[in-house]
Amino acid sequence: MITVLSPGLQTTIQDLEGRPGLWDVGVPPSGAADELTFALVNAAVGNPASAAGLECVQTGPVLTCDEDRMVCVGGAVKHATIDGWPLRPGLVVMLPAGAVLDLGPLDGMRGYLAIEGGIDVPPVLGSRSTFVLGGFGGQDGRPLAAGDQLPLGRRENLLSPANVELPTITNSWQLRVIPGPHGAPDHLTAAGVEAFFNTEWVVDHRSDRTGVRLAGPLPGWARSDGGEAGLHPSNVHDSAYPVGGIMLSGDTPVIVGKDGPSLGGFVVPAVVIEADRWMLGQLRAGDTVRLVPVTIEGATEAIAERRRWLADLRQQSLPSATIIGAAARPDVLHEADGQPAYTIRCAGERHLLVEAGSAELDLTVRVWIHLLAEALREDQPTGVTEIVEGVRSLLVAMDTSRLGPFELAEHLAKLATCLADPETVVLPAREVTLPIAFDHPEAHEAMRRYATSVRPDAPWCPDNVEFIRRVNDLDERDEVFEIVQQATYLVVGLGDVYLGAPVAVPIDPRHRLVTTKYNPARTWTPQNAVGIGGIYLCVYGMEGPGGYQLVGRTVPVWRLGDERPWLLRQFDLIRFTPVSVEQLAHERAEIAAGRADLQVAPATFSIADVRRIEREAPVEIATVRARRRAAFDAERARWGA
Question: Which pTM value belongs to this model?
Answer without folding.
Answer: 0.93
